[in-house]
Design goal:
The protein is α+β, with helices and mostly antiparallel strands and about 70 residues long. It has 2 helices and 3 strands.
């Protein structure tokens, strides 16, 4: 059983990753277009294992970069 934390541990997560992770799960449409159900998980919740969703075949995991500010 693959969970989000296991997948990220295998892939490695960058120290400059953003504060959240998205699981984008494709859903069936009648028009032949691809639409996604998006689940957003805060990194703090994932790091503390308060939430660790199971992944399904076809899921996309999106980890944004953290914002960069120049002063």
């Amino acid at each position: 059983e693959m969970t989000l934390s296991r997948a990220l541990a295998r892939a490695g997560i960058s120290p400059v990753a953003g504060s959240y992770v998205e699981i984008r799960r494709p859903k069936q449409t009648t028009a032949g277009t691809v639409e996604y159900d998006v689940q957003t998980i805060q990194r703090a919740d994932l790091d503390e294992l308060r939430i660790d969703p199971r992944l399904k075949t076809g899921d996309d995991i999106f980890v944004p970069k953290a914002p960069v500010y120049y002063m």
